[in-house]
């Protein structure tokens, strides 16, 4: 928490909830997350977390420093020099650690009273001598980096790393709309060393509605080695997906990916994007298939595909396949209608191969398809197990 002046310390009292664990603050840059990581689809994607994105997060964090993680009650009279000033402007001067937009939200929520009367209008003009009482509640971002006990689906663990089989619906890292209940919160509760690591040891991501295998570092040495291995394309990731259309038996898609020029929540194949390469192998096709609930363009073919990443860009498989006219089933963001009972994008990280970042031996892991995708997969691929 930032230092306050002596006068501010005398005029404020902190209200700390009992049994609340202290918030971990591993990175000021991560207190706010840019639109690229926000939204229902959790646009973090399965990509390397690089310093450039952290810098973007820092630039958009708002406020002047780390935001307190507990509620502060401010009690102060309005100075003569502040007579006629807007309430939100006055509060911004008293609590510079909060953004003005957050303070306006607190006013509208009824957290501020003037001379005992609740005020909900940020533009209300103050008069000298009035007594202001403000319940300065923490922002959701400031409460994101706290441990939360959860049942982590751990496939493998030693003192250096963990392999997690991420379920559908679990957000990997806090972002707008998902400040709590993330994998990172679970990692902070799982082992004490996580609080000392950047992003609690997370070195790559899966989208909220993508299931499957992830590697997480448990020491700084392991995190550094894993990050370098991913950048050097030494970590091999294989996915299974169900896509509309009929891709050829095998192909390589080598097309740069960047932010969509029209919609900020989408990625796209763009000339100015980062290099991205995906190998695609078609395992089986089913035709005709009708979209569920009449939500698609009639009937079409559905293909079961195996995708191998050579790079790890945001939404790489989803973007590459959609760019060729083969969007994933139930991937609304990229034009894929639901079918075969799939209500979320039909994508699963099925196989992970890497060298142990400290001990040096090869590690290979496989994860079976979750029930929803296994049921859909079995309708396309016959007489084959649902694991790699």
Topology:
Elements: H1 6-11, E1 12-15, H2 51-59, E2 71-77, H3 87-94, H4 100-108, E3 112-114, E4 117-119, E5 131-136, E6 154-157, E7 161-166, H5 183-190, E8 211-217, H6 220-231, E9 236-244, E10 250-254, E11 257-259, E12 267-269, E13 277-290, E14 299-309, H7 316-323, E15 347-355, E16 362-366, H8 371-380
Parallel strand pairs: 8-15
Antiparallel strand pairs: 1-2, 2-5, 3-4, 3-5, 6-7, 7-8, 9-14, 9-15, 10-13, 11-12, 13-14, 15-16
Helix pairs in contact: 3-4
Describe this protein's structure.
The chain is 18% helix and 26% strand. With 388 residues, it is of the alpha+beta class. The longest helix is centred in the middle third of the chain and has 12 residues, at 220-231. It is elongated.
Indicate the structural class. Answer: alpha+beta
Gap from first CA to last CA = 48 Å
Helix percentage: 10-25%
- Radius of gyration equals 25 Å
The profile of the biggest β sheet is: 9 strands, mixed
N-to-C series of helices and strands = HEHEHHEEEEEHEHEEEEEEHEEH
Query: Spans of 5+ residues with little confidence (pLDDT < 50)?
Result: 1-65
Count the DSSP helices. 8
Strand content: 25-35%
> Averaging pLDDT over every residue, what do you get?
82
Apparent shape: elongated
Number of strands: 16
């Amino acid at each position: 928490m930032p230092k306050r002046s002596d006068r501010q310390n005398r005029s404020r009292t902190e209200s700390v909830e009992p049994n609340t664990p202290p918030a971990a603050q591993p990175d000021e840059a991560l207190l706010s997350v840019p639109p690229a990581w926000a939204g229902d689809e959790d646009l973090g994607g399965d990509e390397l977390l690089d310093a450039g994105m952290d810098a973007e997060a820092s630039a958009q964090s708002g406020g002047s420093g780390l935001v307190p993680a507990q509620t502060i009650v401010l009690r102060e009279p309005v100075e003569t020099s502040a007579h006629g000033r807007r309430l939100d402007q006055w509060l911004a001067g008293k609590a510079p650690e909060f953004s003005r937009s957050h303070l306006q939200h607190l006013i509208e929520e009824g957290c501020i009273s003037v001379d005992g009367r609740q005020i909900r209008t940020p533009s209300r003009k103050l008069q000298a001598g009035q007594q202001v009482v403000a319940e300065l509640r923490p922002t959701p971002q400031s409460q994101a980096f706290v441990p939360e006990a959860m049942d982590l689906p751990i496939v493998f663990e030693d003192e250096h790393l963990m392999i997690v089989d991420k379920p559908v619906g679990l957000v990997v890292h806090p972002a707008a709309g998902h400040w709590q209940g993330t994998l990172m919160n679970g990692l902070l509760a799982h082992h004490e060393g996580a609080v000392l690591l950047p992003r609690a040891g997370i070195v790559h991501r899966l989208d909220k509605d993508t299931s499957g295998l992830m590697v997480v570092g448990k020491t700084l040495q392991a995190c550094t080695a894993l990050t370098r291995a991913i950048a050097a394309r030494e970590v091999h990731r294989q996915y299974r997906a169900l896509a509309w259309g009929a891709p050829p038996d095998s192909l390589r898609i080598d097309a740069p990916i960047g932010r969509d020029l029209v919609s900020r929540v989408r990625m796209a194949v763009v000339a100015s994007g980062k290099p991205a390469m995906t190998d695609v192998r078609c395992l089986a096709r089913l035709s005709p298939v009708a979209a569920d609930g009449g939500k698609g363009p009639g009937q079409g073919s559905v293909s079961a595909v195996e995708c191998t990443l050579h790079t790890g860009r945001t939404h790489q498989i989803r973007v590459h396949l959609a760019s060729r006219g083969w969007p994933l089933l139930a991937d609304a963001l990229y034009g894929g209608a639901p079918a075969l009972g799939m209500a979320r994008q039909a994508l699963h990280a099925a196989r992970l191969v890497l060298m142990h970042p400290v001990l040096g031996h090869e590690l290979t892991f496989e994860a079976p398809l979750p029930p929803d995708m296994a049921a859909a997969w079995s309708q396309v691929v016959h007489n084959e197990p649902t694991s790699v």
